[in-house]
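Researcher: Re-running this chain for the archive, since the previous output was lost when a drive failed. Same request as before.
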Amino acid sequence: MATPQPSKSVKSYLEAWGNSSFAPTGLATLIAPLHLRPAQPLPLLFVPVLLFSSYANLQGFKIDSAGLTAATSGTYALLAYRRRNVGGFRNKFLSIRGAVRGCAIAIGVVNTLAAGWVYATGNREKEKQHRAENPRWA
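Model: Regenerated structure tokens:
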């Protein structure tokens, strides 16, 4: 009989989500189709910042990437939540566009919490030592 796995704590889930390079890429993937048609330049400015954050995370700068992800995701979620939706309640929640918008806001809030946790509790010396021992482009 297999031994049961110990349950993970909320802290471990937050650290795993905050250290992931997938989270900002997923949010950028949802933001792009929402604001490309019709073209809205201001919300589209969040996409390259989130993709850069994902790139920085892959290069070993996990704490700095988490800070950038938290700031960008939180700003986007706040602005998207405040945005007026033409068409009332039905278009806001009961359409495909409304569902994607809701998912983008939810992922933005979760990114803000998780990446903010990683940024606040990160150990920069340990990260610097890890980058020195595991160079990405050597």
